[in-house]
Amino acid sequence: MSNPRPLEEEAYDMSGARLALTLCVTKAREGSEADLDALERMFQQLGFESTMKRDPTAQQFQEELEKFQQAMDAREDLVSCAFVVLMAHGVEGRLKGEDEQMVELESLFEVLNNKNCQALKARPKVYIVQACRGEQRDPGETVGSDDIMMITKDSPETIPTYTDTLHIYSTVEGYIAYRHDKEGSCFIQTLVDVFTERRGPILELLTEVTRRMAEAELVQEGRTRKVNPEIQSTLRKRLYLQ
């Protein structure tokens, strides 16, 4: 019986090009420029070719992502990883463009899946969504213990259409995402701090982001609020950015 391969070997090849696309509605979203500056610094440090577009309409969210996909598929060199940052006002499952029209997140996510983007087939796609997902506000709860669950699954010979994707939302379903009018959003600023300061697989880094945000005390409308990101992963391997 052969020995199983150690987990450390199961990492994505990051030797090729790293690409990032940021689509950000700044209109009526004070503090957005601070987030854009932080993201630009992070992508530069992590070796990403970064493209940013301010104030896209709902249709331009879709069009810019499709252009991003087409440019990747036209490249002759290897693409190792892509980050897509989407920042706007929103509700669950939808973002509001600069023109006040809504775009479906699912239609944006589909553009880079294993069927539609050959350059990223079986390669990591990371979506960062800074937007509200509802109107609820979380005052916080008292807890006594942590629950930890790990699920592992052998990688099949063929891969499903929607693997190798990481969705990182600034807040959980139904809740508001907070943003400071000068310092930017707690989520983006914390994520950039952790991604540039720490080394390790991205899911471990995101656990640290969640820990820091969970410990933070946000004051909104004169009341203390709690907020934490939500991470949805179909990654099949470890993803190292450093």
UniProtKB/TrEMBL annotation:
Domain called Caspase family p20: residue spans: 29-136
Residue ranges of the TM segments: none
Record-linked Pfam families: Peptidase_C14 (PF00656)
Record keywords, A-Z: Coiled coil
Cited PROSITE patterns: CASPASE_P10 (PS50207), CASPASE_P20 (PS50208)
Amino-acid biosynthesis as UniProt keyword: no
Coiled coil ranges: 58-115
InterPro entries registered for this protein in UniProt: Caspase-like_dom_sf, Pept_C14, Pept_C14_caspase, Pept_C14_p10, Pept_C14_p20, Pept_C14A
Domain Caspase family p10, first and last residues per copy: 155-242
PANTHER family: CASPASE (PTHR10454), CASPASE-14 (PTHR10454:SF131)
Family membership: Belongs to the peptidase C14A family.
Protein name from the UniProt record: Caspase-14 isoform X1
Taxonomic source organism: Equus przewalskii
